[in-house]
Amino acid sequence: MIASAITTTATKYDNYGDLIMAEGSDTSLYNGTHFDFGAGLVNATRAIDPGLVLSSGFDDYINFLWSLPNVDPRTIKAATGEWCNQPLSHLANLNLPSVTISALTGSLTLRRSFTNVVNKSETYLCTVVPPKGTVVGLYPPWFTISPQGTQDLDIQFNVSQALGQFSFGEIVLTGSLNHIVRLPLSVKPVSFDCK
After folding, report:
1. Higher-confidence position of 24 and 45
2. Residue 30's pLDDT is what?
3. Among 160, 189, 183, which Cα is nearest to 6's?
4. Is the pLDDT of residue 135 over 80?
5. Mean of the pLDDT values across residues 114-122?
6. pLDDT at 27
7. Mean pLDDT, rounded, of the chain
8. CATH assignment of 2-55+95-191, given 3.60.15.10, 1.10.760.10, 2.40.10.10, 2.60.40.2310?
């Protein structure tokens, strides 16, 4: 939850107001991608009051390990002492404060689950800057979440243009109590689904 608070409240601007991440832009002081800068610069003031957090526990990481291709289950059991409860439907479904898809073919729906860590209800508007070569839908497009409540957000990715390289975007949840929650998106759209 701490890593989530730091990641989702990071800023893309330095102390002088200059944009640090602008892929292929001449207006950025530091030209780079999410792989160079992560979610951006830490904003400690905002991280103390993030509004929403995403959490993944021990069982989630065990399920992630069991979902990896070409891994012997006995090795995971020997290393962790645990058997899998439920493998992930897709490796990118681990509830992290970012989304990376290394080979998007056609359509894919992922889920992120948020917890409200504020002592008031808050309404969030969900927007997206889709990575190049993709169309991204968010469901629901807005939601109200009670104190300590949880809310699932389904993220639907569709390839609009096969690029064969990573492109970047972000999901931004804007709260009625002035919280802003950002999730970086890194997607490599490789081909259309031929089904």
Report:
1. 45
2. 54
3. 183
4. yes
5. 97
6. 47
7. 89
8. 2.60.40.2310
CA distance 124 to 141: 9
Report how far Cα 84 is from the mean position of its chain's Cα atoms. 23
Domains of the chain, by residue range, sit at 2-55+95-191, 56-94
Q: What CA–CA distance (Å, rounded) separates 12 from 138?
A: 22
The residue type of 159 is V
Q: What is the DSSP string of the chain?
A: -HHHHHHHT-BSB-TTS-BS--TT-SS-SS---HHHHTT-B--HHHHHS-SEEE---HHHHHHHHHHSTT--HHHHHHHHS---S---SSGGGS--SSEEEEEEESEEEEEEEEEE-SSS-EEEEEEEEPPTTEEEEEESSEEEE-TT-EEEEEEEEEESS--SS-EEEEEEEEETTS-EEEEEEEEEEEE----
Percent of the chain past pLDDT 90, that is, above it, reads 64
CA dihedral sign of residues 124, 20, 104, 83: negative
> Given the structure tokens 């891994």, which residue do they identify?
71
pLDDT at 25: 46
